[in-house]
User: What shape does this take?
Amino acid sequence: MERRDFLQSLSVGSALLLSSGLRNAVGQPPRNTDGNPFAVAARAADRLKRKATHMTLRDAGLVLKMWFVETDNDVMLLWQPTDLGGPYPGGTVAINNPRVTLRGEDGTIVDLDLLPDNFGGTPKRVSGVEAYRRVRGIQMARLPWTCHFAAKAGRYQVTTSCQIADLSSGKKVSVSREVGRLTVTRDCLKCRPAPINELAITEPDRKMIESAPVFNVAGETLNENHPAKVFASALDDACRDIDEWGSCPWGTESRPEKRLDPSRWNAHERSMGFYLTPLSYAFRATGRADYYRHALYCQQKITGNIWPATWGGYCCSYFFMHEVDSLLHAGIQAQGVLDFYQVTGDRTVLEPTYRQFKRWPRDQKNNVLTNEINPMGQETHPGLVYNQVTFGLRTIWQLGRIFDDPSMMDYAKTGFAKLLLPDMHPDGYWVYGRGGKLSTHYDLLQKSLLGDILWDPQWRKQPGVLDCALRGARFCVANVTKPGEGELIWDQDYGSEKTIALALGKAGMASSMLAPLVAAGHDEFRKPLVETMRFIYNRRKDSSIGDFWRSSWMMYSVLGPLFRVAQQLPDVLRSV
Assistant: This one.
């Protein structure tokens, strides 16, 4: 679909159009009336030139608001629990299996299941933040959800039914109640299939998409070697997965047999973070509205699930389990949001993440952030895992620079200087954690994270940083690879279907490590970088890996670095 046609399809009844205030309010208290659900429904109705009919169900700690708006083809229902034992993000109440039934005066019945089978687990559930710690389900959201349905012209009795469960007391109440009357002015029978949790697109979003810059490679817009073309099918498959599942159906795994069970899980925010980086870069490279739309969905899902923790800081969602908050998962999600910020330049999308890392507990003995914490803010994983530490310190540095917070930037420098750099093995590698053994996968992950900050000249001037990066790159090129025909294979056991995926993941991480060194003038790594990218490029259509490209981990570790190289080192891309 052409970009103009796609934008038109967003604006004519097929998407929920919001004010700019809502994006600033995701995961935060609204700053103005533009961010509240009434304004959301009013603006959607105004855009569609229709009247919105408002109805409310109140019972047992639940406030469920609904708005019905006629579109050109069908009827759009916007619905949102605005109180689940407390305002957003809610309290101890959960709403199970919510339904809306319309009974027409002519006997017509329209029955709407508000949560599809893969939305929130069994029973299908939306819960407040305190209940959310105890049950599987989807969390109360700042954004209203939508669904579209067909209806003949006429007058309808509207009944809402659900089970309201107070997870603090165990009390459950089944409710079925008429909430109002709806008049449909004309036959609206051309209902289109649409995701229940349809994405909100703001007017500023639309304007930015229309004027999105598309960077050129050697004077050619997206030549055939550009990642946006080479791996377009993988990106498009990822978009379809987000539409269908609300997240990556394979989680972070590189193995299709690990596909998530949709009856148990909804969104997987770590996967959202993995997806967000390549989608953000892909939008910057192409200006395609669908890449932006899906990146925005991932960003909203992540920042909408950062909320105050019992220990006084802010925790994030990973797999809907909150008894342990991991710096690894928080770092992955934060990096995705930081990459999305590079697209929009809107610092407000980073504010929840900034607060989260500003208040993250710190291991004072080792001058680094705590790896994993329980709801009381206590360390639950005392072994120092180096890639987790680097995720945290890299994020602290980037947020400190963007928010002009010298204390955060200084803390990151101190953590590197006092822990990470001295703990590198003299041969040029990090073990998994103190007292652990060498794992080339995690060593490469650690070095790819270090490579990400080496693009900044300030870091290359930090004592010991560049020396560690050079020794680390030399160790990996000499010990983790084997030569192919004009390519560098990043796995000495390469051959089986499983190791192809692992080798590609390692190659992607390696490009993150090598590229900033090449950019800084260390030409000894130019040939390894070109041959690494050639190895990835030559496997783009390998039938033996197929669905591996849809793995969120592969998208992050391979496509994200390739887009970065394409942007920063186009001459390397031309050599592939």
Remarks:
- Confidence is low (pLDDT under 50) at residues 1-35, 260-267.
- The first helix runs from residue 3 to 14.
- The longest strand covers residues 171-184.
